[in-house]
Description:
Blueprint: H1 2-17, H2 29-39, H3 43-69
Helix pairs in contact: 2-3
Amino acid sequence: MGTVNSFNTVFSIIFPLTGGGPANETMVLSLELYNSAFRMFNIGMASAVATVLFVIVASIAAIQFRVSKNVVHYD
């Protein structure tokens, strides 16, 4: 869950501090999504970035679920 939550945390740290940084050095997918949708009003690009971000987060969550399901718990 921490890995999935880090995608949200990264945005909330980078956006107020650098806004993408000089020459887009700190640009991440969630910030690119925000810029495409609300600054450039390019909804098609924002939708594509959101879909890619969703696939990445869903894949990571599925892998973590599968790994944690195979862990033996001793009570």
